[in-house]
Design brief:
215 residues, alpha+beta, Glutaredoxin, Glutathione S-transferase Yfyf (Class Pi), Chain A, domain 2, four-stranded mixed β-sheet, 10 helices, 59% helix, globular
Length: 215
């Protein structure tokens, strides 16, 4: 049995979970894991990060590695196109989303989500770097109706969990969210994805976990 470990508020945990649900896999869920450098935790996930997937007495780390493994091991309901170039395009979109958009915006998270003092140098650097990633993503995104074309792919799983965080972070940091003018297709696209049962289920669990944290 597969076991996905992490916590509901982690966007990367949610990405892997959506992929597993969309593929129709049976799996256990351990949403109690938090990043840690405790020796016993590092035995399960060497960087001390989440998510990680436990399978056959071993563990896999990094959400993209987990999703690639699932695609290879359970090809019956694919989240990549068959054509090699189109498969590469999906990976390209994921890279733009995660490396050139989310990772850049993540520099804002400590101050906008966790109450750290505002850092004008960080805000200026993000404001400079983020448009390049958004421009590259926009050059490849199709929204027809899914981000890579007519079929749902892993790029949609990534977009759904990352883009709202980026939108919220930029709105809190700058007073306006970054996709409103640059890519107005994003909002209705995310709403469309949110109607799918797998996406809706993950969203509901995330919101419940957020509400529990506030009690």
């Amino acid at each position: 049995m597969l076991k996905l470990c992490g916590f509901h508020i982690s966007n990367y945990f949610c990405k892997a979970r959506i992929a597993m649900l969309e593929k129709g896999l049976e799996f256990e869920l351990d949403p109690s894991c938090r990043p840690s450098q405790a020796p016993e935790f590092l035995e399960r996930t060497p960087m001390g990060k989440v998510p990680f997937l436990e399978v056959d007495g071993m563990s896999l780390t990094e959400s993209q590695v987990i999703c690639e493994y699932l695609e290879d091991a359970y090809p019956e309901k694919p989240l990549y196109p068959r054509d090699p170039l189109e498969r590469a395009r999906v990976r390209e979109l994921i890279t733009y989303i995660e490396l050139h958009i989310e990772l850049v915006a993540r520099r804002l998270y400590p101050q906008v989500f966790f109450g750290r003092p505002a850092d004008d140098a960080v805000k200026q650097a993000v404001q400079k770097d983020l448009p390049r990633g958004i421009r590259a993503f926009g050059a490849r995104a199709k929204f027809a109706p899914y981000v890579a074309g007519a079929e749902l792919t892993l790029a949609d799983c990534a977009a759904y969990v990352h883009l709202p965080l980026v939108s919220l972070a930029t709105r809190l940091a700058y007073g306006e969210e970054v996709f409103a003018a640059a890519m107005p297709q994003v909002k209705p696209y995310l709403a469309m994805l949110g109607e799918r049962p797998a996406f809706r289920r993950v969203t509901e669990d995330r919101k419940a976990a957020q509400a529990a944290m506030k009690k």
